[in-house]
Specification:
The chain has 6 helices and 2 strands, in the order ααβααβαα. By secondary structure, it is mainly alpha-helical. The protein has 3 domains: 47 residues; 42 residues; 30 residues, no CATH class. It is flat. The two termini are 34 Å apart. 9% of the residues are buried.
Length: 127
């Protein structure tokens, strides 16, 4: 699960718990406080996603080179929120490059159902 999906699931869980606080445990003040915090986090995430980044900064965040991102802007794949001379892209619009470590870990989990470390521990501790 990606970080954004995990975070969205967590916020939805907190919304359900707030509803339960109010309805099941008669704690509307605590429910209201929880919902306020969830709303604040969602607002902060939306603000962060709308942040315009230079191609150099966007490259550091995404893992793609500034040249590649520039080509995506020129092709219209990424919206330019800057100027023609100084293109910028929104943080939330950036593609993210899969790191080799993530790929190896996911391939291991898919093929074996568990990580290499879990298998090694199982072999060492097997009787």
């Amino acid at each position: 699960m990606q970080f954004a999906e995990h975070l969205a699931a967590r916020l939805e869980q907190w919304r359900r718990e707030a509803k339960e606080l109010s309805e099941r445990y008669s704690q509307p003040a605590l429910a209201s406080l929880t919902l306020t915090h969830v709303d604040e986090i969602e607002h902060d995430l939306a603000t962060l996603a709308d942040e315009p980044l230079s191609l150099k900064d966007a490259a550091a965040v995404s893992g793609y080179s500034a040249d590649h991102l520039g080509r995506l802007v020129k092709a219209g794949t990424l919206e330019n929120v800057g100027t023609v001379a100084r293109p910028k892209v929104r943080r939330g619009d950036l593609p993210t490059k899969c790191r080799k470590e993530d790929l190896r870990e996911s391939e291991t989990r898919l093929s074996l159902g568990s990580t290499r470390m879990q298998i090694a521990r199982a072999v060492v501790t097997a009787k």
